[in-house]
Specification:
The complex is a heterodimer of chains A (112) and B (113). Chain A is an all-beta fold and 112 residues long. Chain A contains no helices and eleven strands. In chain A, strands 2, 4, 5, 9, 10 and 11 form a six-stranded mixed sheet that branches. In chain B, the strands form two sheets. In chain B, strands 2, 4, 5, 6, 9, 10 and 11 form a seven-stranded mixed sheet that branches. A four-stranded antiparallel sheet of chain B has the order 1-3-8-7, with no helix packed on it. Classes of the chains: A mainly beta (112), B mainly beta (113). At the A-B interface, strand 4, strand 5, strand 9 and strand 10 of A face strand 5 and strand 10 of B.
């Protein structure tokens, strides 16, 4: 069974800093990996979706990379802002089946 | 476009009661999902549907039932509620799997006492 881990569980940074969130998974046979943002009391919002054949995806100040062989993905946030404060979750989709496996998330606080 | 809507937002149940969590999407998506999120944990898939009349179990289906009579609606039924079902429930939909992104509803917070 796929296990997805996100470390650290919580992170505080001053405004303007660049930061990296980590996601690791145990089985490299994945179809894609997705990064989500979750605000308190809200649902999840998709940020970036990386197919297994891709190495990275970019959207604005966000850049997600994928290294299947090492079972890792990173989400890079440039020039962080207080509005980036939220929990960030990654989810992997294996090659077989219709299950998505979610990490437990990293809670990010950007201090003004 | 309302996206994915869920009702109710919050509910308290007594042990042994039953209830239905409603989920509706207006994006004409074929695929719909129910997840639960426990504190400090990732989301776990309860049930999913690939189209009207077709449902299948996810990782944690025990104690739940689903039906999919229309493309838009995917209700989740809890029979004989137990404290272990205290959680936040999210409904999601996508146009197809596996390549498409999922769109999530705002969640239903359920407390079983």
């Amino acid at each position: 069974k796929q296990e997805v881990t996100q470390i650290p569980a919580a992170l505080s940074v001053p405004e303007g800093e660049n930061l990296v969130l980590n996601c690791s998974f145990t089985d490299s046979a994945i179809y894609n990996l997705q990064w989500f943002r979750q605000d308190p009391g809200k649902g999840l919002t998709s940020l970036l979706l990386i197919q297994s054949s891709q190495r990275e995806q970019t959207s604005g100040r966000l850049n997600a990379s994928l290294d299947k062989s090492s079972g890792r993905s990173t989400l890079y946030i440039a020039a962080s802002q207080p509005g980036d404060s939220a929990t960030y979750l990654c989810a992997v989709r294996p090659n077989t089946g219709n299950q998505f496996y979610f990490g437990t998330g990293t809670s990010l606080t950007v201090i003004p | 476009n309302a996206g994915v809507t869920q009702t109710p937002k919050f509910r308290i149940l007594k042990i042994g009661q039953s209830m239905t969590l409603q989920c509706t999407q207006d994006m004409n998506h074929n695929y719909m999902y129910w997840y639960r999120q426990d504190p400090g944990m990732g989301l776990k898939l309860i049930y999913y549907s690939v189209g009207a009349g077709i449902t299948d179990k996810g990782e944690v289906p025990n104690g739940y039932n689903v039906s999919r009579s229309t493309t838009e609606d995917f209700p989740l039924r809890l029979e004989l509620a137990a404290p272990s079902q205290t959680s936040v429930y999210f409904c999601a939909s996508s146009y197809s799997i596996p390549a498409e992104t999922q769109y999530f509803g705002p969640g239903t917070r359920l407390l079983v006492l």
